[in-house]
Amino acid sequence: MTTFQLELPDQLAQEAERVGLLSSPSLEKMLRDPLKTQAFSALCAAMDRMIAVDDPSYVSPEEVAVEIEAMRAERRAKSCG
Questions:
Q1: Where does 2-56 have alpha helices with state H?
Q2: Fewer CB within 10 Å of terminal CB in the chain, N or C?
Q3: What are the residue ranges spanned by the domains of the chain?
Q4: Which of 38, 37, 34 lies closest to 75, judged by CA?
């Protein structure tokens, strides 16, 4: 389990605490929901790219490896920025 410190204006922190938004379950949900949405969007984008490809009769293992590495590099770039 990771612990982190968050700095908020006092009034915002008090209001968020009062309605239960600063509890661990609430914060976890606030983080997980956008992550799920992002993963779903990435899946849809990958499916769109697959549909757009002219139906190749054969893809070599080397070509697959290149595509996988490109996807991983794209994910790393997005997670860093």
A1: 10-18, 24-52
A2: N
A3: 10-80
A4: 38
- Does residue 26 contact residue 20 with C-beta atoms inside 8 Å? yes
Give the predicted TM-score (pTM) of the model: 0.55
**CB-based burial, 28-62: b 16+ in 10 Å, e otherwise:** eeeeeeeeeeeeeeeeeeeeeeeeeeeeeeeeeee
| pLDDT 10s digits, 9-63 | 999 999 999 999 999 999 999 999 999 999 999 999 999 998 888 776 788 899 9
Q: CA dist 35 to 15, 24, 64, 65, 79, Å?
A: 25, 17, 26, 26, 11
Determine the straight-line distance between the first and last CA of the chain, rounded to whole angstroms: 24
Q: Are 16 and 8 in contact (CB under 8 A)?
A: yes
